[in-house]
Amino acid sequence: MADERVSAIPVVDNGDKMVDVRLGGIAYDGADEAGAWLRVGLARRLRVADLALGEDLRLLVREGFRPAALQEQYFERYRRGLLAADPSLSQESSVMLASRFISPPAVAPHVSGAAVDLTLADHLGQPLDLGTPIDATPEESEGACYFAAENVGGTARQNRETLALALQSAGLVNYPTEWWHWSYGDRYWALSTGRPAAVYGPVGSGR
């Protein structure tokens, strides 16, 4: 996400309000209330994807909106961990490496209510096997957190493909280093889909 092509994308916010995804029937098991909120355009697309999964599967959201201060905290903690593991890294290199996994706050889609971390669950709401836990780092998962990783089992691979089919058909894009991270309307989405601008910019913590 530190790619200059991402940061160069302009933002023309369309003013979509924030909504609680649970009101649209989407399951949520996040740690706090803020994470259940997303831009309405994204929430509607999640509903479309959820219905497309059929009666036996459903989406399970872990986190949507993330306040800018929390995004900064996550990014810096991970970046400092990389520096501790390899003191030879320059500050610039640590930022670039950290941004593979956690978006720099300036371009982070979670801060815009434009991204969601989620998984697949069965009809009882039990999470399915997708190869790694949500938020597994490239280091601790040996790269299995990447969507296209080859070091995951067949069931996990099939579940990732099922998730992708539903979400891509609804207009979302995946950030490839995190199988669970999908977005709509942010700068990365605009770059990935050839749009001239992002339609969602940062929102205040008060929504």
From TrEMBL:
It is an enzyme of class 3 (hydrolase). InterPro entries: A_A_dipeptidase, Zn_M74/Hedgehog-like. The active site is at residue 178. Its cofactor is Zn(2+). Catalyzes hydrolysis of the D-alanyl-D-alanine dipeptide. Belongs to the peptidase M15D family. This is D-alanyl-D-alanine dipeptidase. It comes from Nocardioides mangrovicus.
